[in-house]
Amino acid sequence: MPSVAGAGGGRHFSVNRAVACWRHRRLRLLFLQRPLFSSLAGGRGGGGEDATPHLPVVVVGAGPVGLVLSFLLTKFGIKCAVLEKNIEFTRHPRAHFINNRTMEIFRKLDGLAGDIEKSQPPVDLWRKFVYCTSLSGSILGSVDHMKQEDFDKVISPISVAHFSQHKLVDLLLKKLEGIGFQTCLPDEIGSSTQDLVLENKILMGHECSSIQPTDNGILIGASFNKAGRMQERKIHCGLLLGTDGARSTVRELAGIHMKGQRDLQKLVSVHFLSKDLGKYLSRERPGMLFFIFNPDAIGVLVAHDLGHGEFVLQIPFYPPQQMFEDFSTKVCEEIIVKLVGWEPTDMRILDIKPWVMHAEVAEKYIGCNNRIILVGDAAHRFPPAGGFGMNTGVQDAHNLAWKLYILQNCVASPSILQTYESERRPVAIFNTELSVENFKAAMSIPATLGLDPTVANSVHQVINSSLGSVIPRNLQKMVLEGLFSIGRAQVSDYILNKKNPLGSSRLARLRSILDEGKSLQLQFPAEDLGFRYELGALDAEDCAERTYEAEKLKNSKRSREYIPSAKVGSRLPHMLMRAVSTSNEGVFSTLDLVSGDKPEFALLIAPLKESYELARAMLKIADELRLSAKICVIWPQGSVDAKVKGSRSELAPWTNYVDVEEIPRAPVNSWWDMCQITRKSVILVRPDEHIAWRTESDKVRDADSEVRRVFSKVLCPTRPIQ
């Protein structure tokens, strides 16, 4: 990814610097009077224990979301440590689909997206979902989830990826090591609190077992096993960020409840290896997901890596008649053979885990007087349909990190933390509903084949209510599995064939569902890239036309096509650009106009007199606030160098600007046309690449006052910026 720096490479320090410095010191002193700011410095103390190590931020949970957040915070100069309750990182693959928006974020994490693209399986091995009677039996249908625009990178500078979570964690750990992080076991950490240095460390085997609010932070009790004895380490922090997953201890200790649907389905997840099976599927029927229905067994196989023969089989089960303990290695091997259709001689089961599918969102994301913040699965639990879980979590982290940076640097007040909740929680609610909708679409396939999951659930409920207190569990299990066996006969070769009228009609209906895109979907570009913040760290007075609920209702009834939008709250639309008046002839995305190295605001303008006036005001006030800001002047394709040099005189004495030239793709003629706005528009983009403000430059009477008003709304200071 190219780096797009302003001409001259830095900020010009104006003749008004003395006034600017005085204003900044006044704001800084005002903000530092609030306890939250003083506690974001490192050192010792807190809770009356002077020897207790103090960190500005402690992240609990070292999954992908916690590691991404730790990377961003460290890169932005915020000292932190990570607590991970497990003694080692799990190798059980979990999430595996990375959507467009998350890959865009990963582009700016020191080339993480490029590492993923190099390491992931070839796209032709995972672009399809396959529906079959067994992995070697009849194919009932398939869906190709990749389109040509994905490869042409029309709507995003990078495509989606298929990359297992445990491999992503490995890459993130390498990135963290590159910026000074260490992974430490309990016996590798000193016991003396006087010499204990915890910043830039991932403390393995440390579970957050207690939290206690103090006058200036949170006192954490971290339990760990050292030499066979359970011990507790006290750590004080300004902010506690809970990224500890769906069964979050931080959420429970903070007393934050979840709202939504619980126990949608219980499943057993079987992680196994078989290169023989991987080679066979690569050659005969490659795919990412295999939905397998036959009279002997039903399951969904996730092909994490066909080349390496790594799979996870998902099997539904129904307690108390069927218990997790019933799924021994031998039983799981037998089920795999039934679903494959032959026995892979090199099959090796690595792990068997139970899990429960929920669709819930935390009632709030922030607790304990702005001291505890939930991020990722700790804040929301989705069905896996659509892969929204990890992706939404990474985007949570991206939204939060820059806000913590400006909070630490005394530019914003603590109320900016509330904008994290007001922006991200509605997205989680929407994604929860979309995941449930997609899960129901997935269930439409077995229902069409005569295996309606709602019937199975009803049978299970009847057995629980009528037989549960009358007959032993073993007999209940025999009844349940006998009824399920009768149900699975619906997908026998006798019924499911073109010569059988019932089977023929079911197969026709199945093909119709697949052809019409009404089955389980993989990509949701309208939602992945087109979601929009309505309330938060933005100024939407002139541009917010509908509430989030109204827009959500509209989206639910339209296609999944992404339509570029420059409305306030939207992600900045992608178009290729080229820097002008430089020796660099490479092309880059509009998203690259926003720095990935530091939290920076970018003002996008066309080369118009009124827009330049607003740009000068923006640079002046950003300088007063010690905010990093840059002007991006977008010129029409083919602009001559003599014209472009006009920016130098218009923006003097400032040098932190860049002139770029559009490279539009037919049928649009310019970036402004693609966004359905005029060249008079002026767009302020936040460090997370979302639009904070938009106006038309000829409608602004007093540029200086307008910019101060906008920053007062976006930065959430204690009082308006004067």
From TrEMBL:
Residues 55-428 form the FAD-binding domain. One of its GO terms (biological process) is ubiquinone biosynthetic process. Keywords: FAD, Flavoprotein. PANTHER family: FAD_NAD(P)-BINDING OXIDOREDUCTASE FAMILY PROTEIN, TRK SYSTEM POTASSIUM UPTAKE PROTEIN. Pfam families: FAD_binding_3. GO terms for cellular component: mitochondrion. The lineage of its organism: Eukaryota, Viridiplantae, Streptophyta, Embryophyta, Tracheophyta. GO terms for molecular function: FAD binding; oxidoreductase activity, acting on paired donors, with incorporation or reduction of molecular oxygen, NAD(P)H as one donor, and incorporation of one atom of oxygen. The keyword Flavoprotein applies. This is FAD-binding domain-containing protein. InterPro entries: FAD-bd, FAD/NAD-bd_sf, RIFMO-like. Coiled coil: none annotated. It comes from the Eukaryota.
